[in-house]
């Protein structure tokens, strides 16, 4: 007898096919009432309905034949692996042919292993060398980019300084200040209320105005944001605002370049071009009121550019430090000169803004009379080509006439003189100033100074008499400008001169001192060289005298020590210790067998033995010790 088959269901799939489906938990085989009816453990865990048998007795896992064989084969392989590992551990790792523990290229059996090992080592070395070269190129590329950034920021700082300085002295770069004042006037006219935060339009348009050339500018969004200290989104909004104010017009639209264009130009994007508005004469009055504000904006841009340049310098110094290099002294000097020039330009900007603001608001008080040197420096800021009539010549004062002081008229009949100390027309000073004689270098130093000023451009602003005095006090009449430049270059050892020293005359004096007092002999006679030779000889003589004095003092000290030692030895021979020597002499005479001499020496009256401590007398005193 057997039980009936379980019910089967028929279902249709999505593709239209019919299949039989057994209900969940239904067995797919005939259940017999007798025998072991257990399922295979492994198949049940995998979802298969298979009967198994506990082959290792009660309590073991029931397995079907395939699962039992799988477990048996796995156990056999595991046991074989353990035996093989144990056998390999007991055997020394040596070649069966040559018996060497390490592979050798001379062995036919382990030579291939050696060759494979060498190939793997060579490949690893090549990969390490390639990685080192790639890292070196990456470091060089990063350092080159840092140096390019320093060069670009230095050029930007110089352009800002030139713009500010030419606003005071006049020049083509002065146009940038008027352009910035024009956009400020346009924005002020377009504003309906003064409330709100300060706009960044002045900073962005300041970068455009300074960067423009012939009214065309291609600033770049990222570069403008960095130089103005704003975000790129702010730059986009300010460009749109400037276009709305008709201060500039976009002539070329920025775009992404094609692959061929990127390969040809080396850049990914093509910048937009703007045409700045023309400075109309009818808007001169509107621009004049905003010229001080424009100068203050340029001062702010210059301060921000100096901060960026300092950060770029720190980056370059960090790269040099990682490479084990030191910053050149000339580079540090150029940085110091640039900082000084920036500080002077900022002072010029602030002074110019104050002067222009004062001129625009007007003077409420009449100006005082001043010499020409006090007021002429501000004429260009005020728009004056010639000095005003309020100045008097610096050589003479308004209170001094041709013949004498105004308080002491020299013509007869004009006023009265003091009775106690009358001042007559023929009176002479008790100590008149006598004219000084010309120095002996007056005839040849001035032409040589003119040649030096032509050869060294940074000496052009120094007065000629000062240059001539510096040269005449140190050189001779046989020198030429070419010889001076050659001597300075030889003493510098290939180092470049400063382009714009802060104190040109002091720098020239330092260069001449180094050239004339160095190790190189000058080509012509020079006063400073002869003076230096005399100073060196005098110093050498002083050193020799000092050494002789030190040697004499040392010899005197040594002689004093020798004398003290001789006196101590004589005192020892004549004083304490004689009894001990007499006893030794008697012992030596007795050893020789001369008993008569020994008795004579012992009979001598020598009583210089130290006191001996007696029992019960206590310890010896410090003086006895």
Order of helices and strands: EEEHEEHHHHEHHEEHEEHHHHHHHHHHHH
Tell me the number of strands.
10
Helical content stands at 55-70%
Oligomer: single chain
Mean pLDDT: 77
Percent strand:
under 5%
Instruction: Report how far the terminal alpha carbons are from each other.
Output: 133 Å
Report the uncertain regions. Answer: 363-419, 621-625
How many helices? Answer: 20
Would you give an account of this structure?
The structure is a single chain. With 625 residues, the protein is mainly α. 55% of the residues lie in helices and 5% in strands. It starts with 8 loop residues before the first strand and ends in a 22-residue tail after the last helix. Strands 3-4-5 form a three-stranded antiparallel β-sheet. The chain has 20 helices and ten strands. Strand 4 (51-54) and strand 5 form a beta hairpin.
Summarize this entry quickly.
With 625 residues, this protein is mostly helical.
Characteristics:
disordered C terminus; 3-stranded antiparallel beta sheet; 20 helices; 625 residues; flat; mainly alpha; 10 strands
Write the layout of secondary structure elements.
Elements: E1 9-12, E2 18-21, E3 38-39, H1 41-46, E4 51-54, E5 62-63, H2 65-90, H3 111-169, H4 175-190, H5 201-211, E6 216-217, H6 221-228, H7 232-244, E7 248-252, E8 255-256, H8 259-265, E9 269-270, E10 273-276, H9 284-288, H10 291-322, H11 329-361, H12 372-375, H13 379-382, H14 442-455, H15 464-472, H16 481-492, H17 504-516, H18 527-574, H19 578-592, H20 595-603
Antiparallel strand pairs: 1-2, 3-4, 4-5, 6-10, 7-10, 8-9
Helix pairs in contact: 3-10, 3-11, 4-5, 4-10, 5-6, 5-10, 6-7, 10-11, 14-15, 14-16, 15-17, 16-17, 19-20
